[in-house]
Write a structure and sequence with these properties.
Elements: H1 12-17, H2 19-34, E1 36-37, H3 47-53, E2 64-65, E3 68-69, H4 75-92, E4 96-98, H5 104-115, E5 121-125, H6 141-145, E6 147-151, H7 162-172, E7 176-179, H8 190-200, E8 203-207, H9 212-216, E9 229-233, E10 244-248, H10 253-264, H11 270-283, H12 286-308, E11 312-313, E12 322-326, H13 334-343, E13 346-347, E14 349-351, E15 365-369, H14 371-375, H15 380-395, H16 401-420
Parallel strand pairs: 1-13, 5-6, 5-7, 7-8, 8-9
Antiparallel strand pairs: 2-3, 4-10, 9-10, 11-12, 12-15, 14-15
Helix pairs in contact: 3-11, 4-11, 5-10, 7-8, 12-15, 13-15, 15-16
The protein binds pyridoxal-5'-phosphate (PLP).
Length: 427
């Protein structure tokens, strides 16, 4: 298990100059310390990451790339970016890395800019089946400026329908094929995607935003050898600062770099890039490998517990840090489940399940993730306890006397559980 981060905040100066915002920071610290954080995309970054993020590097303008900037005085921040790039290259075995994307969505915008022209067809996982907004949703640039061709999971297995992916690729000849999702609990067959992309001459883009942290810890296979380009975030399982990154084959290096700057971004966030370097170094340790493998086993333990408590695991389980649970057996919808859990101090999100009969705002499922609780030191026995607390909260009818009593009882047990392994324990 990884060492839980210790955090003794000293907001002394801020408390004097801006007590309102100091109170917000302390309030958020208190919120994450007092409840269970099961949002699959969240984590607890280390104090070292925060130290780099809250640093003087924030002030520096450094448009361009190390050794080739538009501004003077970049020789110090160049060292941060070079370290971040070198560490990521060695951690992931990538031929080229760009650490400047401000976020996962910004990294994805740069992928489109590097490889496609407006109107080009892009084959990507359907949003209601687990895809991301930037994979062709009409509310994002991706669905407005490009032509999304959605693929799906199979209804019987709830696994990606690779036959459909190939059939659609042969019919539509997409410029880009995207693999990677925001709510898919299973491993993705990168080799199958590679061979389909080769067959139709498409660029293979793996969006590893969610699972790159498991790859870093060698808990699941890497997409890097298969993909033309990999986009990722640094703040989900990877546990670094909020941000994005891109990895690609050497032949695409120039196109990718130009797509990030100057095409889609201005000055890089040098403080965040330094914090990414810190996170990459942390991810290279044995302690991190133990964490990554515990994230996967903990997600499995949590899923088993939820299944024992009457929920159905979409696709039958998980190979990663997250699981999707179909709640229809419990008679409770996703929206209601989310609200009841929140009342009990458990933060998770409602989620559509594949072929969901309920509208998205209601949804028939919930999504849970194990990264944050694993960072704070939870083991398999703790995860079993978490599963039964979630199941009890989901079934407790808020607003009735017995339901409210049950929610209060669950909340008490949540407090007890997190106090044994606190997030950001006081040093
Ligand atoms: C989280 C996520 C993103 C976007 O990352 P942001 O940092 O929130 O912009 C992109 N793609 C996938 C698959 C994601 O899960």
């Amino acid at each position: 298990m990884s060492t839980p981060p210790f955090f003794g905040p000293d907001f002394g100066e801020l408390g004097r100059t801006d007590p309102e915002i100091a109170d917000v920071l302390l309030g958020e610290l208190d919120r994450v310390r007092s409840g269970l954080q099961l949002i699959a995309s969240e984590n607890f970054a280390s104090p070292a990451v925060f130290a780099a993020q809250g640093s003087v590097l924030s002030n520096k303008y450094a448009e361009g790339y190390p050794g080739n900037r538009y501004y003077g005085g970049c020789e110090v921040v160049d060292r941060a970016e070079n370290l971040a790039v070198e560490r990521a290259m060695s951690l992931f075995g990538a031929e080229h890395v760009n650490v400047q994307p401000h976020s996962g969505a910004s990294a994805n915008l740069a992928v489109y800019a590097a490889f496609a022209k407006p109107g080009d067809a892009v084959l990507a996982m359907s949003l209601p089946h687990g895809g991301h907004l930037t994979h062709g949703s009409k509310v994002s640039f991706s669905g407005r400026w490009f032509t999304p061709i959605p693929y799906h999971v199979r209804q019987d297995t709830e696994l990606i329908d690779y036959d459909e992916v190939r059939d659609l690729a042969l019919v539509h000849r997409p410029r880009i094929i995207v693999a990677g999702a925001t709510a898919y609990p299973r491993l993705i067959d990168f080799a199958a995607f590679r061979s389909i992309a080769d067959e139709v001459g498409a660029i293979l883009w793996i969006d590893a935003a969610h699972f790159i942290g498991l790859v870093a810890g060698q808990a699941i296979p890497s997409p890097v050898p298969y993909a033309d380009v990999v986009s990722a975030t640094t703040h989900k399982v990877l546990r670094g600062p909020r941000g994005g990154m891109l990895m690609c084959r050497a032949e695409h290096a120039r196109a990718v770099d130009k797509a990030v700057f100057p095409f889609s971004q201005g000055g890089p966030l040098m403080h965040t890039i330094a914090a990414k370097a810190v996170a990459f170094a942390e991810a290279g340790t044995d302690d991190y490998k133990r964490y990554a493998s515990a994230v996967v086993s903990n997600a499995g333990a949590l899923t088993s517990s939820l299944v024992e408590n009457g929920m159905r695991a979409v696709s039958g389980g998980t190979d990663t840090h997250l699981a999707l649970l179909d709640l229809r057996n419990t008679g409770v919808d996703g929206r209601t489940a989310e609200a009841r859990c929140q009342a009990a101090g458990i933060t998770l999100n409602k989620n559509a399940i594949p072929f969901d009969p309920a509208p998205p705002a209601v949804a028939s499922g919930i999504r849970v993730g194990s990264a944050a609780v694993t960072t704070q030191g939870f083991d398999a026995a703790d995860m079993a306890a978490v599963g039964s607390l979630v199941a009890r909260a989901v079934r407790a009818e808020l607003g009735t006397a017995s339901g409210d009593r049950e929610i209060a009882a669950v909340e008490g047990e949540v407090t007890e559980l997190v106090s044994r392994n606190p997030a950001y324990a006081r040093a």
